[in-house]
Amino acid sequence: MSNYQVRKAIVDLLLRIEQDSGYSHLLINNEIKSRKIEPKDESLLTEIVYGTIQRKLTLDYYLAAFIDKKKKIQPWVRMVLRMSVYQMTFLNKVPDHAVIHEAVEIAKTRGHKGIASFVNGVLRSVQRKGVPDTSTIESTSKRISIETSHPEWLVERWISMYGNDITRDMCQANLKRKALTVRVQPLKISRQKALDELDKLGFETRESEFSSQGIIIDKGNILKTALFSEGYLTIQDQTSMLVAEMLHAKPGMDVLDACSAPGGKVTHIAEKMENKGSIDAYDLHAKKTKLIEDKAAVLDLTIIDAKQGDARKLQEKHAKESFDRILVDAPCSGLGVIRGKPDIKYNKQEKDIYQLSEIQSDILEHIAPLLKKGGLLIYSTCTVDKKENEDVVEAFLEKNSDFILDTSLFEDLPAMITGSPGITEMGLQIYPQTFYTDGFFLTRLTKV
Ligand SMILES: C[S@@+](CC[C@H](N)C(=O)[O-])C[C@H]1O[C@@H](n2cnc3c(N)ncnc32)[C@H](O)[C@@H]1O
């Protein structure tokens, strides 16, 4: 594929992601497969698409300095300008003159001479004058918003909850790549053996301190290994691995995972149970239960019964106090995983947070009777927002006097997390900047 064709594919992809509000990671993978993008172009395509989405608001701020406010710009032309300015400002892989040349070529073929000369004019001005200085933006929230490309309502919200410094660090961390992490299936391979095998294959790896099963991959493509395809390893963020570590499910126990798909945490729980006992794994969406089944099958785990069910109605299916352990890994706004799914920061709205917090409270309220006395319940989300995290837990504890927060959680956490800035009376909020993981919330409750 020529450079021009790769750039053209990037513009199409950016347009589709914006117009369909599609998840960029899924659309990028489809594009690579369907257009048969060569491996040498794969990483550049991914880098430009992700980068352009990640920096969208910053790029638009830069472009606004060079384009008349009243000028109507077609969406594809804006995409060409954004991706070109992204490459000129944040990447140094291709010289500016080549970036401009390719942008003009796309504009000529897709549009006409007039558009090509507009694109050429704007990009040449950016090249000549440089992008505008953002340090003169007076309002703190606006400056963070523009510099890190997060919507201002979200920056203001985070500032009101966590202050300027944590918010700025969080927004900046969301722009950086995180290392891929995997979990070993300990019934099939030990972590040490997996590390040795990966070492032989030329991977650069480290042990994760979040989980005895976790491995951080600094270099190497795990997807192409038999260790992955044969279920010795599975991809999971380190924060998610904390859940099964903290749930302490033992072989022979009865466990409920109320919101289970695609099955990352429930398979980890089954591993901790040495594949002995029983796990009822529900998800609201019937088609997603197949994802849980597939994951369990590749990992050779047989104790998971994946089925459709609304977590708010499980009392119709199970008697009170049926379970030793319950996981509520609730549907959430996902503001902790912006780094991997940058679309989230533009697609989520503040009202979603309020709606989700009601669903989360509802799920907890209806699940609570199913826990045995002395049992443990973990509530977790992959978001950073008090309304969906601490507030949900606090309201639940106020209403349900038979539950208390299991404060031994705080001694139970891995040493590197103890004393981390997100620990509160209601649980552990992990910020994406603290350990360069996803942002995540987790707490552990017990019935007395
Ligand atoms: C954060 S995800 C769970 C991730 C999963 N625990 C894992 O580790 O792979 C939340 C899941 O809850 C499901 N969900 C949403 N509302 C639900 C409800 N009322 N009852 C059960 N599941 C629900 C969603 O379909 C989604 O798959």
Automatic annotation (TrEMBL):
Domain SAM-dependent MTase RsmB/NOP-type: 170-448
EC assignment: 2.1.1.176
Any one annotated GO CC term: cytoplasm
Pfam families: Methyltr_RsmB-F, NusB, RsmF-B_ferredox
InterPro entries with a match to the protein in the record: MeTrfase_RsmB-F_NOP2_cat, MeTrfase_RsmB-F_NOP2_dom, NusB-like_sf, NusB_RsmB_TIM44, RCMT, rRNA_ssu_MeTfrase_B, RsmB-like_ferredoxin, RsmB/NOL1/NOP2-like_CS
CDD domains found in the cross-reference section: AdoMet_MTases
Binding residues for S-adenosyl-L-methionine: 259-265, 283, 310, 329
GO molecular function: RNA binding; rRNA methyltransferase activity
Alphabetically ordered keywords of this record: Cytoplasm, Methyltransferase, RNA-binding, rRNA processing, S-adenosyl-L-methionine, Transferase
Top-level taxon of origin: Bacteria
Any one of the GO BP annotations: regulation of DNA-templated transcription
Primary location recorded for the protein, binned into one broad class: cytoplasm
Subcellular location field: Cytoplasm
UniProt keyword annotation of Endoplasmic reticulum present: no
Active site, UniProt feature: 382 (nucleophile)
Catalyzed chemical reaction(s): cytidine(967) in 16S rRNA + S-adenosyl-L-methionine = 5-methylcytidine(967) in 16S rRNA + S-adenosyl-L-homocysteine + H(+)
Entries under NCBIfam families matching the protein: PRK14902.1, rsmB
Function statement: Specifically methylates the cytosine at position 967 (m5C967) of 16S rRNA.
Family named by the database record: Belongs to the class I-like SAM-binding methyltransferase superfamily. RsmB/NOP family.
Protein's recorded name: 16S rRNA (cytosine(967)-C(5))-methyltransferase
Record organism: Virgibacillus salinus
